[in-house]
Design goal:
This protein is an all-alpha fold. It contains six helices and no strands. The chain starts with a helix and ends in a 6-residue tail after the last helix.
C-alpha cells in the first residue's frame, strides 16, 4: 500500500512541477528585481532542499525513514486525495494569473491587478496552494522533514516576501490595491 502512495505522490510531484514550468515566464524577459540577492539565494536553497526531500521520499524512502511519523494509511490516502484537489486549485490560480505570474518579485510596466478566479477569495491563493500542497505531501509521506522544510521553510520565506510584495503592489496600483486588501484576506477566505 505504501508503494502505491509513493507512486501517487510521484505523479503529484510531476504534475506540480509541470504546472510551475508551464507558467514560468520566458527566460529572455528582462525584469527589474525587487528582491535582495541573499533572499533569492535563500529561496533557491530552500527549494532545492524541498525538491530533494520530496524526490527522495518517492525514489528512496528508506533513506528518510529516520523522520517517519506513523500516520494511519487511511489518513495518508486522505492526503493523496487532498493533494489532487490542491493541484486543481493551483492550476486555477496559475490560469487566473496568466502572464502576471513570476516566481521572482517584480512588476511589469503594463502589469494588471488580478482580482478574479481564486483572487476573488484571497489575495495570495498561490501561497495558500503551496502551503496546502506541502501539507498534502507531508500527510502522504508521513515524514516530518516535509513539514519542517516544506511548510516551515515556506512560512519563514513568506514572512519576508509577502510584506514586500504587498508594498510593491500598493506602490504600483495605489488605492486600487488598498481597496482590494480591505476586501480580501491574505491567505484564507
Amino acid at each position: 500500500m505504501a508503494d502505491v502512495l509513493q507512486l501517487v505522490m510521484g505523479g503529484q510531484l510531476i504534475a506540480f512541477f509541470a504546472l510551475r514550468l508551464a507558467h514560468e515566464p520566458a527566460a529572455d524577459k528582462k525584469v527589474d528585481l525587487k528582491e535582495h540577492g541573499l533572499f533569492r539565494v535563500s529561496m533557491t536553497l530552500l527549494a532545492v532542499c524541498q525538491v530533494g526531500i520530496l524526490l527522495g521520499l518517492v525514489l528512496n524512502p528508506i533513506a528518510f525513514a529516520f523522520a517517519d511519523i506513523n500516520l494511519p494509511i487511511a489518513i495518508r490516502w486522505f492526503g493523496a486525495g487532498f493533494g489532487v484537489l490542491v493541484l486543481g486549485g493551483l492550476a486555477w490560480t496559475y490560469q487566473s494569473l496568466g502572464d502576471s505570474y513570476h516566481s521572482i518579485l517584480h512588476l511589469d510596466n503594463d502589469q494588471k491587478l488580478v482580482t478574479d478566479g481564486p483572487y476573488r477569495l484571497v489575495r495570495h491563493p498561490l501561497y495558500t496552494g503551496l502551503f496546502l500542497i506541502f501539507f498534502a505531501f507531508f500527510v502522504q509521506a508521513s515524514n516530518w522533514l516535509v513539514l519542517v522544510f516544506g511548510i516551515g521553510g515556506l512560512s519563514v520565506l513568506l514572512l519576508v516576501r509577502v510584506p514586500k510584495e504587498e508594498a510593491l503592489l500598493v506602490s504600483h496600483f495605489g488605492n486600487t490595491y488598498r481597496v482590494y486588501m480591505n476586501q480580501t484576506n491574505r491567505f484564507f477566505p
